[in-house]
Structure formats: C-alpha cells, structure tokens
Amino acid sequence: MTLTDEIEKLDTAPTPFDPVAASMDAVRSVIKTCDIQFEQEYLISEESPNLDTATCGSSITLTADNGGMILAILCDQPTGESLTRLLFAMEDDEEVPLKDMADALNEIINVAAGVFKCFRTDVGQPLTIGLPLYLEDSNSIKFTCPGTRDQAKLLKHENGSGIQVHLIWQEGTKK
Amino acid sequence: MKILIVDDSRAMRRIIQRTLRQAGFKGHDIVEAEDGAKALEAVHAEKPDIILSDWHMPEMNGLEFKQALNAEGNETLFGFITSESTREMRELAAEAGADFLLAKPFTPDDMKQALGMFVS
C-alpha cells in the first residue's frame, strides 16, 4: 500500500474546511505527541518540507460524514531510526528492524491523530480515525493524484532531525 | 499485582511499562497481549488484577474486549489507554463499565492520577 493508494480512496475534504487552521491543528498534534509521549521537542521550522527527502513515514485517514483527509508524518531514514531507538530504548548503534520502525512511526501518527481528532471536534468537525499505514520507502510516499491538496510543515529537533507533517485532502467533485 | 497491557503496538506497550515505572508503580508483574482476542485468552490464563487496554486494535478492539469480559461476568479493574479521548468515546467507555480512560499522549503524572486510587 502506498500513500497514493490511500489518497485515491479519499473523499473530498469535509465541509466547511479551513485548510490553514486544519493544517496548524495537524502540526500542533504532532508537536504535542512528540513532546508529551516521546519527550522530544520539535519546533516549526521556517524551511519548506521537501517530499523528495522523505524515505519513510506513516499516514492515517480521518473521515467525517461528509468527507475525509489524511494526516502523514514523513522523515528520512536516520530520523526514523532515531525515533524507533528512542521508543524501544535501544542503543545508539543497535540495528533497527523494519517492523520496529513501522510500529514506532505508526504509533506516533496514531497518537497524533487522536490529538488532531480532539482539536477538530472542538471546532465542530467530528472525525473517525482509521488504521495507520507505514510508508517504507520514497516510492510509497510520492504522490501525484489529480485534485490532491497538501498543506505541509517541517518540524525540526535541536539535534537536526526533521519530521514533515502533511495534511492531504482532495478537492473537486465528491466521489 | 498483575497488570495486563493490551495494545497492538509493541512500542506503546513498552511506553506504558516505562511510564508505569516512572509513575512509581514498580515491582508488579506485567503481562502483554496485542489484541482483544489474545487479551481474553491472557485474562483466562493469567488472571490479572488490572487490565490496561488500547481501543483500536485488529481482530477484537478494546470495547469488544471489555464487552466480552462483561459477558463472562469478569469484573477485573479495567482502564482504556487510547488516543480516542473525545467526550463521546469517554461516555462509551463508561457505559461499557471501564473504570477509567487515560488519553494518549500521557505523562507519568497522568498515569499516577488514573491508577493511583487502584494501585500502590
């Protein structure tokens, strides 16, 4: 499964939809998750996120009665491995099994989706959370679907690692 | 005491164990299960004193697991630890007879507050 597969299943964004506010909620959700659950302080960077640099990540679909959207976190391999080592209390030089990295990134997006759902419920947009999808390489991440919109921010840690937060939705005629 | 941790994420099971220790709940026996169906088997085999369960899981989700326990007349102390923390989900959890719901993300203090009245 790829991000494109998920996007192709996606309905248009729930209405009313303010992409900037929703995107900020998505970013706040990931920051809060990393801070509280994983004790990692990530801050919004001025740099623009570059999809081409992402080699792993996780996405989750959130649906409302009248539409849906995808929340995704994307990063490079060293960041993914570093987050996994942290969650599993592994040594710095310990090899990270793929299934552990999938588990770690999926859990980060799962918790962030719960926080995002709370934020959106507060503004009158109740959502249902789907199951996380691990994105294991750049081929599963790149997407070029017609009508797809993507609001993204880059979060940076003081150690230099970065996490891209993407909120993706479809515009146009409802499927 | 014996604590059963139910979550499909091994990372989250680790985090819950770590947070239990950080919250001061040390020296308890920990048993793990990765979904509701396996948790039900673990309840029969291990007879835990406390169950800490995720909500969204494959096979049998946390709510179905709690309902299965209710159907058996099992009254083991039960708390949800879940990313689902809207008022609607809290009401569903309470209706199913859960003793508490701890929302992810959580701190050791949150864990202490949720479990403090049940565990020493």
SSE order of chain A: HHEEEHHEEHEE
**Mean model confidence by pLDDT of chain B:** 95
Low-pLDDT runs of 5+ residues of chain B are: none
Percent of sequence in beta strands of chain A: 25-35%
Whole-angstrom Rg of chain A: 15 Å
Biggest β-sheet of chain B, characterized? Answer: 5 strands, parallel
Shape of chain B: globular
- Number of DSSP strand runs of chain A: 7
Order of strands, widest sheet of chain B: 2-1-3-4-5
**What's the number of helices of chain A?**
5
**Helix proportion range of chain A:** 25-40%
For the sheet with most strands of chain A, the description reads: 7 strands, antiparallel
The span between the termini of chain A is: 20 Å
Computed Rg of chain B = 13 Å
User: Topology as H/E string of chain B?
Assistant: EHEHEHEHEH
Oligomerization status of the protein chains: heterodimer
Q: Mean pLDDT of chain A, rounded to whole units?
A: 92
Total number of β-strand segments of chain B? Answer: 5
Fraction in beta strands of chain B: 15-25%
How much helical structure, as a percent, in the residues of chain B? 40-55%
Précis, in short:
The complex is a heterodimer of chains A (about 180) and B (about 120). Chain A is an alpha+beta fold.
Could you characterize the architecture of this molecule?
The complex is a heterodimer of chains A (175) and B (120). With 175 residues, chain A is of the alpha+beta class. In chain A, 38% of the residues lie in helices and 26% in strands. Chain A contains five helices and seven strands; from the N terminus they run H-H-E-E-E-H-H-E-E-H-E-E. Chain A has helices spanning 3-9, 19-37, 77-87, 98-122, 138-141; strands at 42-44, 56-64, 67-75, 128-129, 133-135, 148-157, 162-170. In chain A, strands 1, 2, 3, 4, 5, 6 and 7 form a seven-stranded antiparallel β-sheet that branches. Chain A is globular, with a radius of gyration of 15 Å. In chain B, 42% of the residues lie in helices and 20% in strands. By secondary structure, chain B is an alpha/beta fold. Chain B starts with a strand and ends in a 5-residue tail after the last helix. In chain B, strands 2-1-3-4-5 form a five-stranded parallel β-sheet, with helices on both faces. The radius of gyration of chain B is 13 Å and the shape is globular. Classes of the chains: A alpha+beta (175), B alpha/beta (120). Chain A binds chain B through residues 32-33, 35-38, 84, 87-89, 100, 103-104, 106-107, 110-111, 113-115, 117-118, 121, 126, 129, 131, and chain B through 9-12, 14-15, 18, 56, 58, 82-86, 88, 103-107.
